[in-house]
Amino acid sequence: MNFLSRVLLYSAACMVIGGTTHASFAQSFTSHPPHGWQLMDFATDSVYGAAVNKAYQELLKGKKSHPVIVAVIDGGLDTAQEDLRGHIWINPGEIPNNGIDDDHNGYVDDVHGWNFIGGKNGKNIINESSEADREYYRLAQVFGNMHDSSQVKKKQRAEYRYWLKLKAKRQADSADNAETYENLSRVLAVFHQVDSILQHALHRDTITEQNLTGFEPQDSAAAWALNIAYRIFDRIGSDESLESYIAEGDDYLSQTKQKLDALHEDPNARRREIVGDNPFDIHDRNYGNNNVAAGNPMHGTHVAGIIAATRGNGIGIDGIADNVIIMPIRVVPDGDERDKDVALGIRYAVDNGAQIINMSFGKPYSPQKKWVDKAVKYAERKGVLLVHAAGNESSDDDTVPNYPNADFLHSHRRAWNFINVGASTAGPDSLIVASFSNYGKKEVDLFAPGEDIYSTVTHNQYASYSGTSMASPMVAGVAALILEYYPHLTARQLKYVIEHSVTTLPGNSVYIPGTDRKALFSDLSKTGGLLNAYQALKLAATLHGKRKITKKEEKRMQQIVDMIKGQQGRSPDDANPSE
């Protein structure tokens, strides 16, 4: 699920129409940290970054790195993004665009990954229903015509109570969406008016903060518009245009309207029409298409850049890992991802050589969790590390589940290869936990930078986003960096290194997200700490790696590296053969 538009536009709505936000939310955005703060170190830069730059400067100079494959299971990825060129996975067993499954893995022409939410005819799912709506609709076929619980059979009572819970949530969500639509309509009307006034006054089609420098309003309307524009740019940063921000809002408004209109529709109809599989049959696997850039791949591109944007090339940003290959897997629409797609996405990543999988998505219901659990166990057996975003609901994951998670159904065992990540800020200490972030002493393993993270987006652009979606690839990126220099570490050892090298803040009290109360920072996650790449690499150097790398694995990796190097001289338009 994409949380970005909600976070950005909610804050803007509160700002313009006079609403209020939680104190720590408002305070956390009073100033913007510098671009790339997530790579910095508190001792030298006074921001709580992950000390990545320090690691390069003091620990990694002159050392040889080894390529690492990180799968990004997300909403798609712009494979032609300039700062990701040379870092996009190529399937060495597939011949592009010949319409043949050359490597016999069930996926035709999966040159750069796979899109599990597309059809064989090239159509793709963009908007999708929520899991709660899908479950409500399924059970409404059973209980919808019953007048009260006396008509429910004894063996159905648990499901009936579950359905009543979903029904109440559906009604609440419907009211929330209606209110959101009304409020955003008002906000966007103001934004469009501001944009129109400034375009006319400045004789420009595009308004950026730089355009406003030296502008002297000649009337009260222009003065009002200028004031609002500066407040908007203070929130979104100076790099984005007013028009692009408004366009994002218009898109979110359209999605909200679609959710309202879809309340009485079959939530599986679009899936049947476009994808054509049976979403309730895990064995129906040969579906989808190879267009990993379908829909709006903004979110996945941002995530990938945090991990892998080319370091030191003088453009864009610096990613975390300097010898990493990104494998794009599209399973996340604008709406809730389906358990079947998540499970098969994990298996695809594992089967095609990913050593780390990033999952910047989540949802409150998981009716086919057993399929995802089996995929997580499969990744365990194959020694693959899974990194997941804890969620952006300002809630306790220990009491309100966010899926997927490390807890196996009907078992006390937890996945040992699973890291769940909350989002932290640049500081100060009392606001170190991002106001939107989920937390949990049992379910959240650590916090990592996730607020105002500047990274790659589509069409060779760059933007700052906030969310645990950004914190998760921080951890995945550091895991990749460690594995680059210590390739014989197992997934279990990687998890150990990351969790036992965190920066702790002893005795530090922070605002609990979503409340005005404080708690010890150490009580909001299992480790009680912040991601620290520098300390993780130092700890990794003390361990004896237990992972065995076969000649076959080495040969395949070299094939991939050689193919990527061969493609770097080609036109960016050729980067995604499916387009």
Kindly describe this structure.
Belongs to the peptidase S8 family. GO terms for molecular function: serine-type endopeptidase activity. α1 (4-17) runs antiparallel to α7 and α10 (298-308) runs parallel beside α13. Residues 1-11 and 13-30 have low confidence and may be disordered. The chain is built from 16 helices and 13 strands. It folds into 2 domains: 65-127 and 287-574, 3-Layer(aba) Sandwich (Rossmann fold); 131-264, no CATH class. The chain has helices at residues 4-17, 23-28, 42-45, 52-58, 131-143, 157-202, 220-236, 242-261, 269-274, 298-308, 339-351, 369-381, 468-485, 491-499, 533-540, 551-567, and strands at 68-74, 114-115, 324-330, 356-359, 385-389, 418-424, 446-449, 453-457, 461-465, 503-504, 509-511, 518-520, 529-530. The protein is 38% helix and 10% strand. The strands form 4 sheets. It has a 7-stranded parallel β-sheet with strand order 2-3-1-4-5-6-7, with helices on both faces. Strands 8-9 form a two-stranded antiparallel sheet. Strands 10-13 form a two-stranded antiparallel ribbon. It is α/β, with parallel strands linked by helices and 579 residues long. The longest helix is centred in the N-terminal third of the chain and has 46 residues, at 157-202.
Q: What is the H/E string?
A: HHHHEEHHHHHHEHEHEEEEEHHEEEEHH
Distance between the termini: 24 Å
Q: Given this structure, which CATH class of the largest domain is correct?
A: Alpha Beta
> Uncertain spans, ≥5 residues at pLDDT below 50?
1-11, 13-30
Q: Care to count the β-strands?
A: 13
Spatial strand sequence of the major β-sheet: 2-3-1-4-5-6-7
Approximate strand percentage: 5-15%
Structural class: alpha/beta
Number of helices: 16
Arithmetic mean of pLDDT: 91
Rg measurement, Å: 24 Å
CATH superfamily of the largest domain: Peptidase S8/S53 domain
CATH fold-level label of the largest domain: Rossmann fold
Number of domain units:
2
Helix content: 25-40%
Q: Largest beta sheet, briefly? A: 7 strands, parallel
| CATH hierarchy: architecture of the largest domain | 3-Layer(aba) Sandwich
Shape: globular
Pfam families: Peptidase_S8
Signal peptide: 1-26
Family: Belongs to the peptidase S8 family.
Protein name: Subtilase family protein
